[in-house]
Automatic annotation (TrEMBL):
Keywords: ATP-binding, Nucleotide-binding, Transport. This is ABC-2 type transport system ATP-binding protein. GO terms for molecular function: ATP binding; ATP hydrolysis activity. The keyword DNA damage does not apply. CDD domains: ABC_DR_subfamily_A. Signal peptide: none annotated. It comes from Lacicoccus qingdaonensis. Residues 3-232 form the ABC transporter domain.
Amino acid sequence: MTLDVRNLTIKYGDHTVLSEVNFNIEDGSIIGLVAPNGTGKTTLFNAIIRFIPIHEGSITIDGREYKNTSKDIKALHKIVTFFPDQAELYEDFNGYEHIEMYRDIWNKDKKNIDDIITRLNMDSYVKNKVKTYSLGMRQRLCFAMMIAANTKVMFMDEIMNGLDPVNVELVSSVLREIKEDGKIIIVASHLLDNLDEYADEIFFLDQKDVYYTYNREKETDEYIKGFIGKENLGQLGTLPEHTLYLNNDRICIPTSGLDRDTVNAVLNTLRDLSDRSVSLGPLGTNEHYLRIYKGEQSHETS
Ligand SMILES: Nc1ncnc2c1ncn2[C@@H]1O[C@H](COP(=O)(O)OP(=O)(O)OP(=O)(O)O)[C@@H](O)[C@H]1O
C-alpha cells in the first residue's frame, strides 16, 4: 500500500496554510510529523481525510485517487481513521462501549477488543463511565478506539498528550507492533525524543511543503553530542567544520575526519564540562528540529 499526496494546497479563506505539499509513504511505516504550533499538521490530516476541502492537488491510496465526491469520501473513510478528539467522547458511556463502537463501524471481522484493553492496561477502568476518567485515561481510550478500528491508514494527532512516561512507552510499543501489519501511521507530535523510538521517518513541515525528511536508519554521519555553555566553548579547542551549536547549549561535533584518539579526547573534555549526558551517534529528531526551526539561534561554529 502507498499513500501518495501530490501538490496539495490548503487554504482557510485567503490564508494559504499549506502550498503544494508532496510526499509518498509506503506500507509498514510510521511517519513522525513535526513542526512548530500553527504550521498546519492538523490541517494536513483534515485535508487528506476531507474534513476540510482541498484547493488543489491529489490524494492517491493504493493507486486509487480519492476525489471530492461523496462516493470517494465514503470509501476514503473506510480505510483512514483520525485520532478522536477527547471532546468527542460520550461522558455517560463507558470505555468498552466506545471501543466496541469503533470496531463495529470499521471492522467487519469483529476483532476481539479484550486483548487491546489488556494490552493498554485498561481493564481496571474500561467499564466505568467516561466522565470518571482522567486526561491520560481518556487519551488511552482514544488510542484503543483507533486500534479497534484497525484501518490501513491512521492519523494520530498528539496521541501522547496527557500520558505519563510509562504510558508513553506503552503506546510507543503498541505503535511498533501494529505497524507490522503493513499500516501507514502518521503521528503528529511535539515529543521529539520519543518519536525516535518508533518513527521510521520524520517529516518536518514548513509553511510551503514537507521541508525536510529524516530517516534514522539511513543517517550515516556520526556526531559527538553534548551540552555546553557558550562561555566554555573555547575549552573544546578548534572545532571541526560543520559543528552545530544549537539553542545556545547543545553541541554536535561531526566525527568524520577525526581519529579515535581525538574523538575520545573531545568526549572526555565534554563530559567534564557538561552536566548532562554526552553521547556519540547520528543527529536525532530534536537536533534536526532545532537546526531547522530555530536556525537563527543556532550556527555553525566555523
Ligand atoms: N478552522 C480554521 N479557520 C481558519 N484558520 C484555521 C482553522 N484551523 C486552523 N487554522 C489556521 O491554520 C494554521 C495551521 O493550524 P493547524 O491547527 O493545522 O496547526 P498545527 O501544526 O496542527 O498546530 P499545533 O501544533 O498547535 O497543533 C494556523 O495558522 C491556524 O490559525
